[in-house]
Every structure is written in structure tokens, then in C-alpha cells.
Design goal:
The complex is a heterodimer.
Chain A (H helix, E strand, L loop, with lengths): L1 E5 L1 H6 L3 H13 L2 E5 L2 H10 L6 E3 L5 E3 L3 H25 L4 E5 L6 E5 L2 E5 L5 E5 L4 E6 L1 H9 L3 E5 L1 E3 L5 E3 L2 H11 L4 E6 L5 E2 L2 E2 L2 E3 H7 L5 H15 L4 E6 L5 H6 L5 E4 L4
Parallel strand pairs in A: 1-2, 1-13, 2-10, 5-10, 13-17, 16-18
Antiparallel strand pairs in A: 3-4, 6-9, 7-8, 11-12, 14-15, 17-18
Chain B lengths: L1 E3 L6 E3 L9 E3 L6 E6 L5 E5 L10
Antiparallel strand pairs in B: 1-2, 3-4, 4-5
Classes of the chains: A alpha/beta, B mainly beta.
Chain lengths: 270, 57
């Protein structure tokens, strides 16, 4: 079992034929689940709809969308209605039996809503505000995914969770992918992004064990930090390997699996 | 202005223009407190309880 996280940049540019062929070959020899991102597209569409997005900064410097009620509705509409459907259509065009789901469908991703969050406000002071509609993932409906996979489908999952009061929640796609991989007991998770892998001092880090990956948390760029954190969560959840690589190269999945490209994160060696 | 730490009774400096929800840290025990401004303008400090920085896409 392999979980593939398709980054927002890949979605935006349209999936490359080389990636689609690679995915098709992978799906012939292994079971695959796809989780996608697309936060930038949500921001663009929200602005076109007259709802400019508000971003807030956490004390450790992570900038995130502030997801109020209207925003979570636009988020769900774009992630599920547009991005997910587009991806499913692209996969089906090359003969992949893709089925699109959000975390709402069959309560695929359950999360607990964050009631309050700490931000650093415009005066540079830390302040607690209402958490809006974001959440921490607590459960993945593995049974539903297994039913689909056994039925010959490739599930394509958008990062929307369902809350305790059946509300829509914005969840981070990297961490959604990590949760899906861990709970499905996937062997590998592959994060396809727009950079070669984890870069340190201008050089690609080819291999990390869990302790090394954890020690780097908070020390790399914000986008990569989320991938690193998601990799750590996946490995701790039992996934054997987390691979971070560019989705814009020829055969990114095959090359990542063979450790020819990207960053490989594994459990600590005994 | 000054406030007393509910945990260790240390002295905590609070900005004059403080607003509800702001977080102050006790310099003595290091605990974070949320500022709650009550009806009469009095300041109350309550332990800051929030969840991790996991705010979605």
C-alpha cells in the first residue's frame, strides 16, 4: 500500500503525462491512495468570489489561513468540487479507476475542531482568538478506503474533515495524507512537491532517520516543515518510509521508491 | 500596569493598551496567562489553554 500526496502546484499546473504514466504503472503493481493539496487555488478562487483570505501567524512563525465559516464553505467547494473532481477526471482520462472523496464522505476523516488558537497579532503580541473551522485529525475510516481499494478503485481524497458536530473542517493535506497512510498501514508515503526534497544549506538531504527528522522540525522552511512533521507522524504511525520529492520530474514515484531522488525518512535503526 | 501571577504571585508587566485574549508570561515561573478584561475594566489572568499549531491548508 502506498499513499501519494499530490501537492497544490502539481494540481495547479495540471498533472504531467509522465507522472500519470508512472502512477498507472505503480497502481498496476501496488495499492494506491491519493491525497491532494491546493490551498493556493482556494485563496485565488476566494478572492475572485470577493472573500479575500486572512492569514494569521503562529508564535513559531507558521502562516495559516484563518478559516471562518464562509471560508470553510469556499474551501470545501474548491477542494472537493473543483480540485478533487479535476484530479479524478485527469486520472480517469488515462484509464485509472479513480474515485473522489472528501473527508466528509462516509466520515472518511474525522477531526476535533480547534476552539481557540494563538496568533501573533499586528502589534507583534501573542493573542488567543477563536479557532475557526480547523481541526486535528482523530480518525480515518479505513474500512471505507479498503472497500474501495478492494473494489479496484483508487481513492482520491481532499483535505476536508468532518467535525464532532458534523461541520466542515480545514485540515492540512500533508498531515491528512500521513494519517491516511498510518491508519491504512501503508508501507510508504510519497510527498510530491515543487522542490527536490529537504534542502539544508543549499544541499539535498538524501536520508534521515526519525530522530534526525525530529531534530530538524522548526529549522526548515514552513512548507517543508509541515512535510517533515507529517513524515514524522507517518513513521511513528508505522509507515516504513516517507519520501519527499519533486513531482515535476520524469517518473517521480518510481525514482522516489528506488531512492534515486528526494529525501528518504525511515524509522530509527536498532 | 502590573498584575500578579495567579500561580507564583510574581509580578507580570501588562501593556496599558492590553486587549482581551492577549497572552502574558510570568517572568518568574514562566507560565502563560490569557488576559481577560472584566466588566469594570479589571484584569484577570487565567492559564492560557490552546491547542497545537495545526491550522489546515
Amino acid at each position: 500500500m502506498i499513499t501519494v500526496k499530490v501537492g497544490g502546484d502539481m494540481v495547479k499546473k495540471g498533472l504531467d503525462p509522465s507522472f500519470l504514466l508512472d502512477l498507472k504503472e505503480l497502481a498496476e503493481r501496488d495499492r494506491v491512495v491519493i491525497v491532494h493539496g491546493g490551498g493556493d487555488i482556494v485563496t485565488e478562487i476566494a478572492e475572485k468570489l470577493g472573500k479575500p483570505q486572512v492569514f494569521v501567524k503562529s508564535p513559531s512563525g507558521i502562516t495559516s489561513r484563518y478559516t471562518d465559516r464562509e471560508t470553510v464553505e469556499i474551501y470545501t467547494m474548491v477542494m472537493s468540487g473543483m480540485i478533487n473532481s479535476k484530479l479524478v477526471a485527469e486520472l480517469r482520462r488515462v484509464g485509472l479507476n479513480a474515485v473522489g472523496l472528501s473527508g466528509i464522505d462516509g466520515a472518511l476523516i474525522r477531526a476535533r475542531r480547534k476552539k481557540r488558537i494563538i496568533i501573533v497579532d499586528e502589534r507583534g503580541r501573542r493573542r488567543i482568538i477563536d479557532g475557526g473551522f480547523t481541526g486535528r485529525i482523530v480518525e480515518v475510516n479505513v474500512h471505507l478506503l479498503e472497500l474501495l481499494i478492494e473494489g479496484g478503485y483508487i481513492p482520491v481524497v481532499s483535505p476536508i474533515a468532518i467535525g464532532e458536530e458534523n461541520e466542515f473542517l480545514n485540515v492540512d493535506s500533508d498531515r491528512a495524507a500521513a494519517n491516511v497512510a498510518a491508519q491504512l498501514k501503508a508501507e510508504k508515503i510519497i510527498f510530491l512537491t515543487d522542490v527536490e526534497g529537504l534542502m539544508l544549506e543549499g544541499r539535498l538531504v538524501k536520508k534521515l532517520d526519525l530522530s534526525e527528522a525530529e531534530s530538524l522540525l522548526g529549522k526548515v522552511g514552513a512548507g517543508m516543515d509541515k512535510k517533515l512533521l507529517a513524515s514524522v507522524e507517518a513513521i511513528k504511525g508505522g509507515v516504513r518510509e516517507a519520501l519527499i520529492t519533486s513531482g515535476f520530474i520524469d517518473k517521480p514515484l518510481t525514482k522516489a521508491i528506488k531512492h534515486r531522488v528526494g529525501t528518504v525518512i525511515t524509522a530509527d535503526q536498532p | 500596569m502590573k498584575a500578579r501571577c495567579p500561580e507564583c504571585d510574581g509580578e507580570i508587566e501588562v501593556y496599558d493598551d492590553v486587549i482581551n485574549g492577549e497572552i502574558v508570561t510570568c517572568p518568574e515561573c514562566g507560565m502563560d496567562f490569557e488576559v481577560v478584561i472584566e466588566e469594570k475594566g479589571e484584569i484577570k489572568l487565567v492559564p492560557a489553554e490552546v491547542e497545537g499549531e495545526d491550522w489546515g491548508e
